Batch of 2 targets.
Target 1
Amino acid sequence: MNMPRSAVAHLLGLSRNTVAAHIRRAEQALGRDLADVHSRAAVHLALALSSSGAGPEPDDYQPVPSLDHLLSTERAAVWSRATLRPLDARHRRTLQAWIDADTDARQAACRMGVSRNTVRAHLRTAEALLGLDLLTTGTGIHEVVHALHITNARAV
């Protein structure tokens, strides 16, 4: 979820085509487009929750809550506010535009009517303020996707 396909291929000793084929099969099984930042964030969260052992015991069947249900709780809202607190409105708008553009700085810049360099400068500032890696490995972007989703859903 956090590495380019070529890096995964190198790490596993596979060809990029093999990795791409595995990703296509995963996308089909999940019914998700893993090129979409929202889908990657959702799958990343699901993998983190499943590996944490936070789920019910196999004999204790309980319906699995939806992602929207999990993100609509007061606990999630508190986390979201705390996560985004260091950002001013300008940096939040830039992050939202960047995410809406599927992390494409050029497309976000066009939508905002600013230069690509301005978007990247705002993203670097947001990285520093949030203490999250947004531009290299992408591990922090999943948190921002969820935090902005929670904040936007509560604003409606």
Note: The radius of gyration is 17 Å.
Target 2
Amino acid sequence: MEHYVVLITTPDADTANVISEAVINENLAKCVNIIKEVNSVFHWDGKINHENETLMIIKTKKENFKSLMKKVKTLHPYTVPEIIALPIVDGSEEYLSWLDS
């Protein structure tokens, strides 16, 4: 089975907690780590922006990604939320089995 790490930034920890609870409750992800206050520098609306955001690191199965992305978009306040999936190419057998359960 294939697995993903999904990176999502949110404007604050409250938003990250709401999204995390939803994707866990709907079995779209197995685990979410929330890292408060990452500094993001990005180009938007013709200017360079500097924002403090919260980073979510989500572990899930590849088969759940499209549904997870759809759910996040319904809860996320950004017009274009960052939702990036990275394949897990290897990991401990026990952890990957837990992701499958």
Note: The chain has one domain: 3-100.
